[in-house]
Amino acid sequence: MTRLSSGFVGLQNHGDNTLIKFRNIRIREP
């Protein structure tokens, strides 16, 4: 279970970073 929990946390963190990157790119676009 611990291994699965770590994987879920990693996916969540990666997802947040991806969303932030998309937001930055979107803001850069005119």
Q: Which key phrases capture this entry?
A:
30 residues, mainly alpha, 90% helix
* SSE ordering: H
> What is the gyration radius calculated from CA atoms?
13 Å
Calculate the terminal CA-CA distance, rounded to whole Å. Answer: 46 Å
Helical content class? over 70%
Structure, described:
With 30 residues, the chain is mainly α. Helix content is 90%, strand content 0%. The protein contains one helix and no strands. It has one helix at residues 2-28. This is 3-keto-disaccharide hydrolase domain-containing protein.
Could you give the topology of this structure?
Layout: H1 2-28
Organism: Haloactinomyces albus
Protein name: 3-keto-disaccharide hydrolase domain-containing protein
How would you summarize this macromolecular structure in one to three sentences?
With 30 residues, this protein is mostly helical. It has one helix at 2-28.
